[in-house]
Amino acid sequence: MNRIDEKFQLLKEKNEKAMISFVTAGDPDLDTTVDLVIAMEKSGADIIELGIPYSDPLADGVTIQQSSTRALKNGAKIAKIMDSVEEIRKKSQVPLVYLVYYNSIFKYGMEKFIGECSDVGIDAVIIPDLPIEERKDIIDVADKYGVYLIPLVAPTSKDRIKAITEDGKGFVYCVSTTGVTGVRQAISTNIEEYMNIVSQYTKMPKALGFGISSAEMAKEFKPYCDAIIVGSAIVKKVAEGKNKEEIIEKVSNFVSGIKDVLKS
């Protein structure tokens, strides 16, 4: 069984919602990324997304765009990120997911990329710019290597939700609002109605992300979903840290605060 399935099964037994945290791999450097993943797991992160830095991340707001720029400047290439995941796997079995833009996979080689994901211990990939009409090839390769492809839906997806989710595995990433990622003070989407619509088309766990920036927001939305995804707010803490120790402390405290409200 995939680590993601195992995690959601365990959390369901404990009546907990999953805390899914995101960091950009290589921001500020890959050594820090390895230590951050271990620290976030200890602080309560149930699943961790690693963003593969990209020069033109269309789905991401300024915070994550800037983190990609820093990571690329510091030499965070896919091969090195794969090496870092191998280091993480020596210390942790936390479910790991790559968030990666399709052009990065295409340039690296689809089969090579997915095969290496399987080899190093990546459980799933999220490809925010992969059109539904063009995903058959990558699903076939992902299935071959036992790597899940996580589907993304948005409030505007509606009649396309069934088609988007039918070949997905692990969980469905429910984008909370239209636009790009980023810290938001409020979300205007009717989350209860939106999650009910998604539930009509899939039994996969629903993970809500984009804009959730505090424990208060996580607490507000947890009744309607199975997981809360926090990205930009964590990446912001990474950017604010003056050194590795301060980054790890800031992020650990923040992740712990989110997880606390998802436990009951």
Topology:
Layout lengths: L2 H12 L3 E7 L5 H13 L4 E5 L10 H12 L4 H12 L6 E4 L2 H7 L1 H11 L3 E3 L9 H10 L2 E3 L1 E2 L7 H5 L6 E4 L15 H11 L4 E4 L5 H7 L5 E4 L1 H9 L3 H19 L2
Parallel strand pairs: 1-2, 1-9, 2-3, 3-4, 4-5, 6-7, 7-8, 8-9
EC number: 4.2.1.20
Catalytic activity: (1S,2R)-1-C-(indol-3-yl)glycerol 3-phosphate + L-serine = D-glyceraldehyde 3-phosphate + L-tryptophan + H2O
GO molecular function: tryptophan synthase activity
Plain-language structure description:
Helix content is 48%, strand content 14%. It is of the alpha/beta class and 264 residues long. The chain has one domain (3-262): TIM Barrel (Alpha-Beta Barrel). It has a nine-stranded parallel β-sheet. Helix 2 packs parallel to helix 12 and helix 5 (102-108) packs across helix 6 (110-120). The model is unreliable at 179-186 (pLDDT under 50). Keywords: Amino-acid biosynthesis, Aromatic amino acid biosynthesis, Lyase, Tryptophan biosynthesis.
